[in-house]
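User: Thanks for the earlier help. One more: Phosphate ABC transporter permease. Can you show the sequence and predicted structure together?

Assistant: Of course, both are below.
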Amino acid sequence: MSGDVNRDSNRSGAFVVSEGRRKMQKAARTAGESILLLIASFVAIVVLFIFYFVAVDAVPYFQQRGFAEFFTSSNWYPAGDPGEFGALAIIYGTGMVTLGSALLAVPMGIAAAVCLSDILPFSVRQYAKPVIEMLAAIPSVAFGFFALVILAPLLQTSGGPMLMWVWWILAGPFLLLAVIVGSDLLTAGIEEPVRRKRYATMLQVLFTLLAFLVLYVVGSQLNGMQILTGTNALNVSIILSFMALPTIVSVAEDSLQSVGRELREGSYALGATRAETLVKTVLPAASSGILAAVILGIMRSLGETMVVWMASGNSSHIPDPWYNYLEAVRTLTATIAGDMGEADQVTGSARYHVLFAMGLLLLVISFISNLISERIVVRQRKILSGQ
């Protein structure tokens, strides 16, 4: 009996940690956690310092000139006597090229992510994704040269036919995918396979004819267009969309992959088709990650400087009509980059401080966008988890 007790005590003694060793482990854990907290806090402190120093040089402008001229006037004559600093047209130009790039990049990026995640075979995906991500490694000045030297003359000399072919190339596969998915979804409720296949074929023929009609009508309108200048909002929007594409595709594809095979196989086991599984199961489950990808892509377009400086035309006016993407515009980032060298940095003139006011506005927009996206992501996660 005593021998069993000794053996038990020896066995339990193998897991006993001395008091000194326990204190050392606690001290090491505390030190590690403190270092990680310091690193995380350092990033937050750097962001706060950037906000502070930009705001310090932006506030004098608003103290001297108020808010009305900056946000409501389109008269941007910083070298005048007296100077005029209305930034409304510049803010509008920034929103215009950002929206244009998002309209082009978001559908292409999400469609490419879905193809990479659920349609293309793995052997093709492992080559296609790195090629798309290589776009992120190209310097922005190279994109700017392409926009200025190649795309701008093409838009000016043969912009109409070029836009028509771009429309056919981009919209054709998208409409074809919409035809297949739409007909599949509309006939999903028919239980008899033969009847379901017959109705699906009829809908595909009908939707294909409608798609060709849309392609032809819009293509004809684009073919007849005359573009006066190639350095315009459309040029910048196209290039910015390609610059935002790697971010959207990469983050969205990772989010779709993280959904997992179990959810897909569960949907197939319940009788759902591939299109139903994609539209009703995979995309909703990955919606928070896809939204984060879209926000990151839009922020990439909003903060880009070199391309908009080289290819937007830098004309400080609101296009007429307001949706005319074929006119030159000016953006906040291009104005800051272009005018900072000419501003009086020694005495701190209004022309100098207004550039910091523009920088502060960009920071505030980015900060609010990130907050909104975080709120949407958290809310979506709660909905998906049933909370």
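User: Great, one quick takeaway?

Assistant: The mean pLDDT is 85.
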